[in-house]
Design brief:
The protein is mainly β. 0% of the residues lie in helices and 39% in strands. It has one domain: GroES chaperonin (10 Kd Chaperonin, Protein Cpn10, Chain O, Roll), CATH 2.30.33. Strand 6 and strand 7 form a beta hairpin.
Amino acid sequence: MAIQPLGDRILVKLLDQEEKSPGGIILPDTAKEKPQEGEVIAVGKGRLLEDGTVRALEVKVGDTVLFAKYSGSEVQHKEKEFLILKEEDVLAILKGKK
């Protein structure tokens, strides 16, 4: 990956949203909600604390995470969409989901 996040930021590949509603209706692109799940592709070195030490991030490459709906900055690299966000915007790590 050519994008390396700095500090306490992480690079997330957005997961595809469902094409159908729970009732079986096919959703057009305009009706889909903004994705809130993604796979961690790269992580920064960690948060710099006031005493000068660096605290490692809790998330690691390969984790599937749930994040706040309108957080982070969207970037495109080689025609793929990614999101760069701070670790504090991650709401949860989704276990057992790939």
